[in-house]
Amino acid sequence: MDPNQLLGKPLTADYMPHGYWGMFMFARNRPVFSGSVIREMMSDPRVIFGLWLIKGPILSNARFKIETDNDEIREFLITNITRFWRNSAARALKAVEWGFSASEVMYRVVDGEIHFDILRDLHSLDCRAVTKDGALVGFTIRDVPHKGQTGAASRQKMFIGIPKGFWHTHWRDRHPWYGLSRLYGAHIPWWEAWSDGGYRDIRRLWFHKNAFEGGVMYHPPGVTRTKDDLVISNKDLAREMIEKKRTGGTLTLPNTMSSDGIRSWEYEPPAPNSIPPGLIEYGVSLKEELFEGMGIPPEVFEGGGGGFGAATGRQVPEEAFFSVLQEMVQWLISDADQQIFRQLVRMNFGENHDKYEIVPFGLTAKAEEREDQMKEDVRQAQAAEASRLAGTGMPTEMSNRFQGNGNGKATTSPLGPSA
């Protein structure tokens, strides 16, 4: 076989997954999933919290190693990658909820060299990718005001090319440029909670109805004359008092007795209503389904407890979760390298000086550190308990989570890449 056939451009560069929009927007037995739905889901605090759980470890624990023989290029990349991760990675990670993100890249001059400055936010739904021969060359953004014009005609579509523009895709196996929102799997439990007649309507209705005490009001026959000389039926007056009385309200009644020794007016409060069986469990189940639909296992969003066995049981799902996050770090730094950093190296050092590799690590190692630390804490707690039972009274110090664990694994270090 001719080696050029193996080393050339991809044969499937222009390939698009079959049924992308129909598959994910109009699936059978599912409500429509679209950009307007994502906007609504972003108002749910549980969705925001879930996104924090996904993005937080990526932004705080990711580390990078620069493999190159040129120390000057290494220092240049460390400076720019560190700045990108500190002030712009979170903006690029909007792709997690939208499926893709687009940003305008701002640059600055430092010691005569062009450096990365910051990403300027652009709304994902206003941007569309532009490709040539199956490769991304930039994107268009709509509603950009045109100088010298006013009114609706002044807002036009603008093209921003790489490296002035930055494009990042989440779940690119679903679509190479537009990906798929991480919220797609959480859409059904979210919709079940927020739709008309859904869980939140049921819960609100139940507590609203129980905000009124109700009860039974005994009243004498006849009418009552008010101070304004209005005549009101005692039956209507009793009903009005009951309807106006909410939980925690007060009620005063005249202490008059009938001829047979029974109070003329008497209020009998209702029996308390118990919470319907399964109501609370239903809400908890929807919350768990929402987080799991976002790819977050219960071992991550629930507090741990128990002994060594519980810690061991959390290890597998946590490791899988952080392994997926590590892949997300790989895709983000790969996009940033191809669209920003490699372009900067060529501009500042020449076309033939881009022979380097950026190797991400850190997230899976952090998971292992946490697991080792939990095991160590359990071991020391068991030793302290055994010491107490033996009557020695010797306390055992808990190890410091941030000083390493003596097993050769990396300890915490400042944010940013390492050489």
Walkthrough of the structure:
The chain has 419 residues and is an alpha+beta fold. The chain is 43% helix and 17% strand. It has 14 helices and twelve strands. It has helices spanning 3-7, 20-25, 35-41, 45-61, 71-87, 89-92, 95-98, 187-194, 199-209, 234-244, 279-293, 298-301, 308-349, 363-390, and strands at 63-67, 100-110, 113-122, 127-132, 135-145, 155-161, 165-169, 216-218, 223-225, 231-233, 266-268, 357-361. The strands form five sheets. The chain has a three-stranded antiparallel sheet with strand order 3-2-7. The chain has a three-stranded antiparallel sheet with strand order 4-5-6, with no helix packed on it. Strands 1-12 form a two-stranded antiparallel sheet. Helix 4 (45-61) packs across helix 13, helix 8 packs antiparallel against helix 11 (279-293) and helix 13 (308-349) packs antiparallel against helix 14. The radius of gyration is 32 Å and the shape is elongated. Mean pLDDT is 81; it is low at 305-310 and 395-415.
The SSE string, one letter per element, is HHHHEHHHEEEEEEHHEEEHEHHHEH
Give the DSSP E fraction (strand runs of 2 or more residues): 15-25%
Uncertain runs: 305-310, 395-415
Tell me the strand order in the biggest sheet.
3-2-7
Shape field: elongated
How many H/I helices?
14
